Prior knowledge:
Blueprint lengths: L8 H15 L11 H8 L3 H13 L3 E4 L3 E4 L5 E3 L6 H6 L5 E12 L2 H4 L9 E11 L2 E11 L16 H8 L6 E10 L2 H7 L6 E10 L5 E9 L5 E3 L19
Amino acid sequence: MAKRVEVSPFDRAYEGIMEYISAHGLVEGDRLPSERELCVLLDVSRTTLRSALAQLVAEHVVESRPGAGSFVCPSRPTNHLDDLSGFSEIVRKTGAEPRSRVIGSSIIACPDEIAGRLNLAAGDHVFELRRVRGVEDVAVCVETAYVPASAFPGIEGIDFARESLTDVLGIRYGRDTVHTRLTVSVRRASAEEAALLSISEGALVFFECGVRADASYAPLEYGETVYVPELFGMSYNTVFTMDRKRRVRKEVPA
């Protein structure tokens, strides 16, 4: 007999709101039912409902307008770290068009701290590409990529204001990205990053760095990217199994 899984009130509220948005075809700017109506509909307390709404606000799914209610936010690109999509593909999934502005591209000697990540020797050359990436006309990240120059001859002549680096490596050079090893953290924006992204110096940003590799685990690219959290999300889907052991209370003689 299958074991019944209990759903917590918070999960019921959170998932119920998401299902309501989907089932009723709500889009950007549409208003959710009032808190009173949602509490009745989802059979949760107002405290639980507000916790679920706060989580959805943090995830940029809904926005709260004092005195007016809760409304569906415009969709934003989200990097699901358990898939291999590049920036351009992620943005196009939202129905928007990616934009790129090249702020630097050249063949350089590989920096010592990066050579090991790309299985290169000190002094080997890499193609360094720095771009501001955007959604339509809004800058959302600053990206720096390092690619082994010897593996991709002529790459410095490609117009990366128009081309996707992931597509170029896969289609033009036949080296598809199959494996990734990425680290995401939160830090504060430098003065240069703030100016490029039109945010305040010291504002919190997502910092992603890591290596993309081909089917044989040969490194294709090492990249570092700074994202504006309000404009570009990060997520990782996983499943945890918890084995709860019974606690046995023992009586200790006085």
